[in-house]
Amino acid sequence: MKTDRKETTKVPDEKEIERELNDLESSLGLLKRDYDMFFSGAEKRPPALLRQRVETSIRRYASSQGLSYAQRFRYNSLVARFTSYQDLWTKQMRLKEEGRSPSGVIIHPDSKPKVTTQNLIHDPQKEKREELFQEYIRTREETGEGKPGVNFQKFCELLDQQQKQIIDKYQCKQVDFFVKVEAGHAKLKARPIQ
């Protein structure tokens, strides 16, 4: 005798979905950080396990009907960010396999970076500018503008020029730079600090 059993699939509640979306967002941030470390040479292998976990989380809600409009929007934003990161990582991996750095410079396997006292000095301004440059690149990719036509050194030179002009104009002590999206374009903005 056969009995019909209805399969009951557990529909996650609102709080559980929010928690999982928060986990997905933080995992995506960790994955980006781990890939940045891999491409900079600090890690030997790409973060395959974490990437697989992120992909599994993304697939879980791909066709889920239990998401509210706000949750679906947030999920789609996270998927779009992950997709743009994937494209970037694929390009960087190809360059790495070809023996080139992302700037296009050919890296010889025998060459090792020279350790100098300048490399060992902790420079918070340089670190802040590197973070700003990475944020600018990331924002341009998210807006679909692609990579900027300047490298980090040229970016710093432009910041120095802008900083000097703003300090002269506003008679301020410092200038705070930040990235803002205006009319769908990434813009570098400055704020004088007295």
The profile of the biggest β sheet is:
2 strands, antiparallel
Rg over alpha carbons: 22 Å
Runs in which pLDDT lies below 50 for 5 or more consecutive residues are 104-108, 110-120
Distance between the termini: 84 Å
Strand order across the largest sheet: 1-2
Helical content stands at: 55-70%
Shape category: globular
Total separate domains: 2
The tally of strands reads 2
Average of per-residue pLDDT values: 79
Q: What's the tally of helices?
A: 6
Order of helices and strands: HHHHHHEE
Quickly list its features.
2 strands; 194 residues; two-stranded antiparallel ribbon; 6 helices; 2 domains; single chain; globular; mainly alpha
How is this fold's topology laid out?
Blueprint (H helix, E strand, L loop, with lengths): L13 H27 L7 H13 L8 H29 L19 H4 L3 H19 L9 H19 L3 E9 L2 E9 L1
Antiparallel strand pairs: 1-2
Helix pairs in contact: 1-2, 1-3
Describe the structure in your own words.
- The chain is mainly alpha-helical and 194 residues long.
- It folds into two domains: 11-108, no CATH class; 117-194, no CATH class.
- The chain has helices at residues 14-40, 48-60, 69-97, 117-120, 124-142, 152-170, and strands at 174-182, 185-193.
- Strands 1-2 form a two-stranded antiparallel ribbon.
- Strand 1 (174-182) and strand 2 form a beta hairpin.
- Helix 1 (14-40) runs antiparallel to helix 2 and helix 1 (14-40) packs parallel to helix 3.
- The N and C termini lie far apart (84 Å).
- Residues 104-108 and 110-120 have low confidence and may be disordered.
